[in-house]
Amino acid sequence: MKRALISDIHSNLEGLQAVLADIKSQGISEIYCLGDIIGYGPNPRECIDLVMQCDVCILGNHDQGALFDPEGFNSGAERAIFWTREQLESPAGDPDQNARRWDFLGELPRNRRENGFLFVHGSARNPLNEYVFPEDIYNQRKMEKIFSLIEKHCFQGHTHVPGVFKESLNFLSPEEINYQYKLTDEKTMINVGSVGQPRDGDPRSCYVILEDNLVTFRRVEYPFETTVRKIYETPDLDNFLGDRLREGR
Ligand SMILES: [Fe+2]
C-alpha cells in the first residue's frame, strides 16, 4: 500500500492543492494528515474542506488553539488563530458547513497507532506540543525518553523541518539521503515536513510517501506569491507570515 503523509498545512491552499495534485499523480491510495490544518495562512475553510477527505487526520496545536483558548503562541500566531476562528464562525458562511468543520476539528484524535507505527503531530511523549528538532540529537535524555515510547517508527510534524531521527542519535536531512530512507529494525522518528510553511530553507511544500518500508520525501513547487498576496491583504495576518514563505524559513 502506498500512503501519503502530509502535515502543517496552516491554511495555505495553494500549497495544499499542489501537494494533492502530486499525490494524485503518484498512484496513492490513502492520505494521512498529521495536524495543523489551520493557523498562519489565509484559507482555513478551504483547507479544512480538503483535509476532511483524508483517510486519517490527527489534531495539531494550532487546530486545538482555534477550538479552545490558544496558549503558548507568540502574538502573531495568536492573532492568526483568533482571525481563523472568526472565519470558521462567520455568519456569512453556510451554517451547516461551519458546523461540519467544527465537528471535524473537535473530533480529531491526538495520535494513531498501527502495527508498531505511531502517528502524532508533535512527539510520542507530548503529541500536541513537543518539538523534536534536529539539534535534539545532542539531548540524549530527551531522545531516549521519547524513543522509549515508540514501538517501531513514529511519523510526526510540528517543527516544519523534515528528516529522519535514528535511535542511534543521528539526524538525516532529506537531501543527504537523496530523499529516501529504508526503514529497518532500528527505531526512527520521521518528520514529514510542512505543506504550507516549510522552515528548512526550501520554500517548496514537503510531504512523505510511505510504501512498505520505503520513506520518500517529496518537494512540490507551488505559486507562493499568491499565498503571500492574500496574507498581505489580511490585516490580522502579519506580513512576516507571507515573507517567510518565499524563503522557506
Ligand atoms: Fe505547525
How would you describe this protein?
The structure is a single chain. This protein has 249 residues and is an alpha/beta fold. It has one domain (2-247): 4-Layer Sandwich (Purple Acid Phosphatase, chain A, domain 2), CATH 3.60.21.10. It has helices spanning 13-25, 44-51, 61-67, 75-89, 95-106, 140-148, 224-232, 239-247, and strands at residues 2-6, 30-33, 56-57, 111-114, 117-120, 153-156, 163-166, 170-172, 180-182, 188-191, 205-211, 214-220. Helix 3 (61-67) packs across helix 4. It is globular and about 55 Å long. The structure holds fe (ii) ion. Fe (ii) ion (FE2) binds next to loops.
Briefly characterize the structure:
This protein has 249 residues and is an alpha/beta fold. Helices cover 33% and strands 20% of the residues. The two termini are 33 Å apart.
